[in-house]
Amino acid sequence: MSPNIDNPAYLLTLLTGGLTNGALYALVALAIVLVYKTTSHINLAQGEMATLGAFAVFALTRHGVNVWLAIAIALVLSFAVGAGLERGLIRPLERRGIFPVILATLALFLIINAGVAIIWGTSPVAPPRPFPGGIEDKVDVIGGAPPFFVTHVSIGVLAVLVVLLLGLWLLLEKTKLGLGYRAVAANREAAEVMGIPVGRMYMFGWGIAAALGTLAAALVAETAGALDFNSMGAILIFGLAAATLGGFDSVPGAAVGGLVLGLVMAFVPGLFTVIEGDLSLVIALLVVLVVLLVRPQGLFGTKTLERV
Amino acid sequence: MAARVVLEGSRAHRLWQGSGLLLAALVVLALPLFVSDFRIGQFSLVIAYAVAVLGLNLVTGFTGQVSLGHGAFFGIGAYTTAILVTDHGWAWAATVPVAALLGLALGFIVGVPALRLHGLYLAVITLAVGVAFPVVVSQPVGIALGTGGVAGKTVQIGWDKPAWFGLDVSDRGWMFLVMAAVAGLLFWLATGLVRSRVGRAMVALRDNGTAAAISGVWPAEVKTVAFAISALYGAVGGSLYLLTTPIVSPTTVGFTITLLFITAMVLGGAATVSGAWLGGLAMVFLPYYTAEWAGQIPLLRSITDQPGLFANVIYGVVLIVFIYFVPAGLVPLLTRLRTRYLVIVPPEAAGVAVPPEAAGVAVPPEAAGVAVPAADWASSGSDTTPGAPDGGLAGPTPAIGGPLSPVGEHHPSDDPGQPARGLPSARGASQEERTR
C-alpha cells in the first residue's frame, strides 16, 4: 500500500490523471466501436490511422495554420480516408470472413506505421498544442504538499470527450443518417430491405471512427508532449481493452469502459506500490482477459447468440 | 506435355520424394561450402524465422485460430536462451528444451481463452499478449529476471567446427548446418502432426467447428494443443535466432515481428508446412534487398536515413496483394504448377481410376474402401475445402511438400480436408500412416 493512501490531494490527483487518460482511451474505444457496430470488424490500424491524422495536424500547423483549423482539416481528411479505405480495401474482402479483414488492417498498420516514420522521421516531434500545456497552466484546488491541481490539458481533454459524446448522441439519435446507421447496426439484412444504403453506412462508420481517432491522437500527443510514429501503439491496446470492457457494440459502453480503465490504471499502481515500473499494458491485458472470460459481451454490450 | 501420374506411396512416388529430399539436403550441405559467411548468416536467419513461422501456420493456417501474439512466443524462446547462456553459462543446446517448454506453457495459457473466444476476441487477446510482452521485458519485473531492459540482452554463442566433421566449412557454416538439422527435425515433426489424427482434428475445427465437435473432436483439447505447439515452434525459433544475432531486445520481439510473421505465413501459404520456408526467405531477403535498393535511389535516400522502413511498406503491400490475389499463398500455387507435369494420386482415388494391382501397389484395405470421386484428384492442388469459412485464405486443404520440404511431395487430398470423410476413418488412416 502506498503511504499516501489517506492523503486526499494524492487521491484526487490520481483521479484526474486517470480520468484524463481514460478519456483518451474512450475516444479510441469509440472509434473501434463505431466501426464494429455496423461492420463487425475491428480495425487494428485504427491507432496508426490516428497517428497519421495527428501528423497531418502537425504538418499543417508547421505551415502556419491555426491549431484548431488544422485539427478541423485533419478531421475532414481522416473521415475521407477512413471512408475510402472501407470502400476500397475492406469491402471487397468482407464476404470472405473475419481473417482476411484482420490481415488487411494489419497490412494497413505496417504501411502507415512505416510511412509515417519515413515521412516524419523516427524521433519524436513537438506536437501542436490545442490547449495551453505549460507548467503554470493549471487550476490549483488544494494547496500544500502534495498539492492538488487540475491542468488545463486535463480539463480540455475531458471537455472534448463530453462534447463529442453529446455530438455523437445527437448525430446517432436525432438525425436521419444516425437512424440509418443504427438500423444497419441492429440488423443488416432488414436495413438493406428497408432501402437503407448499407454500404454507405459502413463508410460513414469508418469515416467517423477515423476522425475520432485523429482527434484522440492529437490529444494523446498533447498530453504526452511528444508525437512519434509509435505514439498510438499502446493506446490502441488500451482502446481495445476499453471497448472490450464496455462492450464492442455499445457507444456509451466505450466511454464508460475508457474512463473505468483509465481509473483502474491510475489507482492500481498508485495505491499498490508493490508494482514496480509501468505495467499498464499488463493491467489492460488482465482487464481484457477477465472481462472476456467472465462477461464476453462487456458491461453494456449485447450478448450475441450463435445459431448453428 | 501430358502430366505424369504417380500413385502415392508407389515406388515412383517414393523415388520422387527421395530425390526431392536428397536435393534439399545437398543444397543445404553445399551452401556453407560455396557461400560466404555473410550469406550463411542470412540463411541461418531464414531457418530461425521459418521455424517460428511454421508455428504460426500450425495454429492459424491449420487450426484457424487467429494469433497476433507470435512475437511473444518468439521472444520467450530468445530471452530464455539469452538469459541461460549469458547469466548461467549454459550450453545453447541445453537451453533449447527449456525455451521450448516455456513456450509450450505460455502457448497453453494463451490457448485457454481460445476455448471460449474466437475470431475477433481471440485476436484482441493475443494482440494484447504480443504487445504486452516486450513491455514486461523492459520493466523492472523483466530486468530482475535478467532481460537487460530496453537495451536488450547480449549473448555470445560461438562454436568451433568439431574435428570429426569432414566437410570444409567455416564455424559459421557448421552452426548453419546444426540449425538446419534442428529445423529439419521440427519440420518433419510438423508434417507428421498435420497428417496425424490431431492434425485432421485441427483442420476440421478450422473448417467447421460445430461439425468437428459433433464428429468427436474435442475443441478444447485441440485448440490448446495447437496454441501450445505453435508457441513451442515460436520459442525454438527464438532460440535459433540467437545463433545468428548476438542480441535480443524488446524491439526485436515487438509487434512488428508478429506482423512480419503473419505476412510471411500468408506469403508462403498459411495452411502449408513448407510455406514457412518461403516466408522465412522473404523475411530475411526482402528487407535486405529493399534497404539496398532504397539506398541506391537518391530520392528515397534523401527522405529517410532508415531505408529498412521501406521494407515494412512493401510487406504491407505484399500482404494486401496476397490477400486479394493469392490468398492460399505461394506453395499451393507451386503445387498447382507442378501438377501440370506430375500428378500424385492417393491410393484411394486410384482405386476408382486405376486398379491398384495394375499399378503394383498394395493398397491398405481401409483406404481402398473409401470411395473418392475421381474428380477429387483431377483438380489436384487446387482442392479447396467445401464451405471453408475463411473463403480460401487458409482455405485450401493443406498442401504439404514443395521444393524444400524435408519430406518431399505430398498430395493435398490425402490430408484432412473434408471432416466428413477424414474423421471417421481417422484411426484407420493413422495406422496407414504408420505402415508406410
* Shape descriptor of chain A: globular
- CA distance, first residue to last residue of chain B: 31 Å
Largest sheet of chain B: 2 strands, parallel
Tell me the radius of gyration of chain B: 22 Å
- Count of DSSP strands of chain A: 2
- The portion of residues assigned to helices of chain B is 55-70%
- Strands across the major sheet of chain B, in which order? 1-4
Compressed to H and E, one letter per element, the order of chain A equals HHHHEEHHHHHHH
> What shape does the CA trace of chain B take?
globular
Rg result of chain A: 20 Å
Largest interface: A-B, 51 and 51 residues
Give a brief description:
The complex is a heterodimer of chains A (308) and B (436). Helices cover 71% and strands 3% of the residues of chain A.
Q: Descriptors for this entry?
A:
heterodimer, A: 308 residues, mainly alpha, two-stranded antiparallel ribbon, 11 helices, 71% helix, 3% strand, globular, B: 436 residues, two-stranded parallel ribbon, two-stranded antiparallel sheet, 4 strands, 65% helix, disordered C terminus, transmembrane helix (chain B), transmembrane (chain B), cell membrane (chain B)
Question: Could you characterize the architecture of this molecule?
Answer:
The complex is a heterodimer of chains A (308) and B (436). Helix content of chain A is 71%, strand content 3%. Chain A is mainly α. The mean pLDDT of chain A is 87. In chain A, a hairpin with a 5-residue loop joins strand 1 and strand 2. In chain A, helix 1 packs across helix 9 (232-246), helix 3 crosses helix 8 and helix 9 (232-246) crosses helix 10 (251-271). Chain A has a two-stranded antiparallel sheet with strand order 1-2. Chain B is globular, with a radius of gyration of 22 Å. Chain B has one domain. Chain B has 436 residues and is mainly α. Residues 354-436 of chain B have low confidence and may be disordered. The longest helix of chain B has 26 residues, at 37-62. Chain B has 21 helices and 4 strands. Classes of the chains: A mainly alpha (308), B mainly alpha (436). The interface between A and B is large, with 51 and 51 residues. Chain B: It is found in: Cell membrane. Chain B: GO terms for molecular function: branched-chain amino acid transmembrane transporter activity. Chain B: It is a multi-pass membrane protein. Chain B: The chain crosses the membrane at residues 15-34, 40-59, 66-85, 91-112, 119-137, 174-194, 224-244, 256-289, 309-334. Chain B: Keywords: Cell membrane, Membrane, Transmembrane, Transmembrane helix.
